[in-house]
Design a protein that fits this description.
By secondary structure, the protein is an alpha/beta fold. It has a single domain, classed as 3-Layer(aba) Sandwich (Rossmann fold), CATH 3.40.50.1820. It has helices at residues 3-26, 79-87, 107-125, 140-150, 152-157, 177-180, 188-194, 205-209, 230-241, 272-284; strands at 32-38, 46-52, 61-65, 91-95, 133-138, 167-171, 217-222, 248-253. Strands 1-2-4-3-5-6-7-8 form an eight-stranded mixed β-sheet, sandwiched between helices. A hairpin with a 7-residue loop joins strand 1 (32-38) and strand 2. Helix 3 crosses helix 4. The radius of gyration is 17 Å and the shape is globular. The relative contact order is 0.14.
């Protein structure tokens, strides 16, 4: 199928995928508790916690950041993903952040880190500290998840410098801006995020991961992605591993495009089992 055909398929699938997310988020789920915590004055600055009612100290926490081109979305829209993690025994925290055009980068990264700190403070207050922390996200959320883990100076500035990250899970992530946008004028969404065509290196996860901490990474991507080509994730993983590393892994769904990878959380796909096995492995170490 041509790139143009996949682009059309992507656009047509978005309303269906969002409808599926909404329907699954609206259904009650016994055994999963939900709580919203605001961490700022903007309505987007909040964390939606979805936790197993039978939670224990040491349970891993997955901090998931929603996608939507940095312009759309909310934790509530992605509630079904939090429920997926809670159903598998994880404390799930869905982080909201200020959106474009009302806020420009680095406001989004600051919010993601402030939301993570809020979730960790809640966990400590509930007596559930010491479990591993995984940062995850889809599309633009995958971009922010990678920055939250590897932009160490910003993490220290937001009071999270001593928080160990057990793993990073980007799904359809925007992970290498140079590969995605060799000509910046061709990437209006990133230009909107950055407020122009200057200073993109500050928001490029590939810049930070090369030579950065050896945090386990699992990149999940669609081989037919018309919005964020699969080469973007492959380049990020190569840069993370460098000449000798093997802590970063890349798995592609040969039939997947972009937003449809979200269905990994409610359908059987080639990526679901490897993702769960990876989460189990890094949570046990």
């Amino acid at each position: 199928m041509s790139h143009r055909s996949w682009a059309v398929a992507e656009r047509l699938s978005l309303p269906v995928i969002y409808a599926e997310l909404k329907a699954r988020g609206a259904r009650p789920m016994p055994g999963v508790a939900e709580e919203r915590i605001d961490y700022g004055s903007d309505p987007a600055q909040h964390v939606l916690l979805l936790t197993p009612e039978a939670r224990r100290s040491g349970d891993p926490l997955v901090y998931f950041i929603h996608g939507g081109s940095w312009r759309y979305g909310s934790p509530e829209r992605f509630r079904a993903i939090g429920r997926f993690f809670a159903r598998h025994g994880y404390i799930a925290a869905l982080g909201g952040y200020r959106l474009v055009p009302g806020a420009r980068y680095p406001a989004q990264l600051h919010d993601v880190l402030d939301g993570l700190r809020t979730a960790l403070e809640w966990r400590a207050s509930a007596g559930l500290q010491d479990g591993p922390v995984v940062v995850a996200g889809q599309s633009a959320g995958g971009h922010l998840a990678a920055l939250a883990a590897f932009a160490e100076e910003t993490r220290r500035d937001r009071g999270l410098g001593d928080v160990p990250i057990a793993g990073v899970l980007p799904i359809s992530g925007v992970l290498d801006l140079h590969v995605l946008c060799p000509e910046r004028r061709m990437c209006p969404l990133v230009s909107d995020l950055m407020g122009g065509e200057a200073g993109w290196e500050r928001a490029d996860p590939a810049r930070y991961v090369h030579g950065g901490p050896r945090i386990p990474i699992l990149c999940l991507h669609g081989s037919q992605d018309p919005l964020v080509p699969v080469e973007v994730a492959a380049s990020f993983v190569l840069r993370a591993n460098g000449a000798e590393g093997d802590h970063a892994t890349f798995i592609a769904d040969p039939r997947g495009h972009h937003a449809d990878l979200t269905r990994i959380f409610w359908r059987e796909t080639p990526l679901k089992r490897p993702m769960l096995e990876w989460l189990d492995d890094i949570s046990a170490t």
